[in-house]
């Protein structure tokens, strides 16, 4: 989600592992004091060289955060997404945490699924929640509209999509009762495909569902085999209902078959081996191990004199339908092609790739699409990756929006909000718009933006802001923080705030710009109980190749616009004015562990000075291509 | 976020602090409950006239004028409830949901929670919008949909009828799907999702 201007992002320090060093930064701030005068009087034509200088300087200043660098994509987060670890005393972004699932729930019916059921339900809702296979909208259980009377609604039920008007009638499915639809559907889809000879298949293990004529013989073999096998080892692995034509059932049968195969092959030969070597691991591992063990017996075996009696057992493949074998019918492909070409199928009859991705692999036509049970979602607890301290723990109930633990960064770092100052910086430029249009900032016209930092901690905080004098990148925008060092008062109880009524930061409209005068260097613009507003003076740079750079802005703007836009497009979003700001904050916290947040533990005896430093990026607006 | 500059006196402020644009179209006001400090911008349409008619004889015409007359004296049915600090942007449409149930087409109440933002030109026909819900510009919320607390509907999304959007989820697209989750700090006062008081205060200021 890209945000509208103005926005603020905060960079998680995890991106560059050495945490930004305030001492280093201070030096950079000193160095930044010098460049502005010489840059201020650079002519337009000196611009390029100045920019080069700037770039060199940036290279020297490896700590200057560049919001445009590809790396910063991975470290910039909106403030509300960041967490704070009280053990590490650091901001934690989604990349420096680990997650643990607290509960699974269906996003449609908002019922929790016990973790033991999640696996067997295939991570999907086991109730009545389905998504449309055509458009993914949720399906509703509706009755076929013959029942308009007042009486208890009888009659068949269908799933219908309220978005694309697909219903299960399109694939010929009706339900007898409006509950437990998933199991109803499962029964149907398992039994519809084999054209259903007998339904008592669990008991009889019928194999009549095979299409291939020969398969009946095979199935007899298979049956005998299976019965043999069962007799042999009193198999604990009971086949789940042997009608293998449904996709899921066939998969289960195959899985089962291979499991028994592995067990059998390894057992028949490995009874000996395992007893000799004392392995009790699964058969597959056994066989692998036996390849590499250098026991005298096996080395003799592979050394040359191969004894036929120690021939390794061979796994066979599935032979019968009961084992999950599906023999493609002879003209299967031809049938499909014929159907594709038939006029009643057409393009619309084909399932799209997106639709097929969620269906079983042999689905090709819209008619084959089955309703999809809704995928479950999770509630997750979050832990700090480095110290395993738990940062977020939601309540497990799906409906609840509360948290048992929630250490969000906003409770610790000041919340930045950005707002353009509605008065033009120099009264000599009355034509300047009230800077409300942040999507087209005129280049080289100074604007003022108000940066409000609101403290959520119960301790007053000292803040130092620093910006590079000129934003990194090709568009050199000059930025000055008019009062880089200030304090923010402590947050107080919610009740105080409520009683005092609207004293939130942005309400200072009453003291509009005219009454407050012009922004002055070294002075805080506005201040409240737990917030402080400072002014940033911003002179947007010119876009490379724009007419403003040549100094003549009017005549040939039209012609220039084309290539300006072309150039701007060549480097994406170069016209976006983003200001990196380094924030250093320190405060006196209680030495008691983690009391800053609670605030009630008012123990003034021993205080510890804490500090925290991070980069943030202020998205001010978009620079206009020309004057 | 900042609303356009309104002409002086554009908003009527009620006793409970609702700021209602004179250019909004509100029908059936006796069936609408505003929780206070709600902003309704110009050209927003709120259909309080589409309330549930408890007509017992079903086969008759639901538009039967006798039906509302029969029901309204006993229980003035509520069509739309809006919580505190909710914000209905320009040209948004709030319409109570409706469905055909046992052959009767009837309306159901639309409940909107606190701190809800409904974007410009959005059409809301949901059964309920929870607290701190954000409905983006141009989004459409289908009939009987349920949007839980702190859900975020992206601009231009079409939430299909009957969909349930769980808390903290971001939905978008046509038809809308869950595409992500908002951060844990969403809804903190002053941050993203917690701007409702600010929005309210700025409205109607010169």
Quick take:
The complex is a heterodimer of chains A (627) and B (206). Chain A is an alpha+beta fold. Chain A has helices at 22-33, 35-40, 47-60, 115-120, 181-192, 201-204, 215-233, 247-277, 283-292, 296-303, 332-341, 353-357, 494-500, 513-516, 547-550, 557-570, and strands at 7-11, 76-77, 83-85, 90-92, 97-105, 112-113, 130-131, 139-143, 157-161, 372-373, 377-384, 390-394, 403-406, 415-420, 447-454, 461-466, 478-481, 485-488, 526-527, 531-539, 576-590, 607-622.
Descriptive report:
Chain A has 627 residues and is α+β, with helices and mostly antiparallel strands. Among the domains of chain A are: 1-18 and 64-77 and 413-424 and 435-501 and 519-546 and 570-595 and 605-626, no CATH class; 130-192 and 334-373, no CATH class. Chain A has helices spanning 22-33, 35-40, 47-60, 115-120, 181-192, 201-204, 215-233, 247-277, 283-292, 296-303, 332-341, 353-357, 494-500, 513-516, 547-550, 557-570, and strands at residues 7-11, 76-77, 83-85, 90-92, 97-105, 112-113, 130-131, 139-143, 157-161, 372-373, 377-384, 390-394, 403-406, 415-420, 447-454, 461-466, 478-481, 485-488, 526-527, 531-539, 576-590, 607-622. In chain A, α8 packs across α9. Chain A is elongated and about 85 Å long. The model of chain A is unreliable at 19-61, 192-244, 273-281, 303-308, 424-435, 502-515, 548-562 and 594-603 (pLDDT under 50). Chain B has a single domain (11-50, 74-202), classed as Hexapeptide repeat proteins (UDP N-Acetylglucosamine Acyltransferase, domain 1), CATH 2.160.10. Chain B contains 2 helices and 23 strands. Chain B has helices spanning 66-71, 196-202, and strands at 11-13, 19-21, 25-27, 32-34, 39-40, 45-47, 80-82, 87-88, 93-94, 98-101, 104-107, 110-112, 117-118, 123-124, 128-129, 134-135, 140-141, 146-147, 152-153, 158-159, 164-165, 169-172, 177-181. Residues 56-62 and 64-74 of chain B have low confidence and may be disordered. The interface between A and B is large, with 50 and 44 residues.
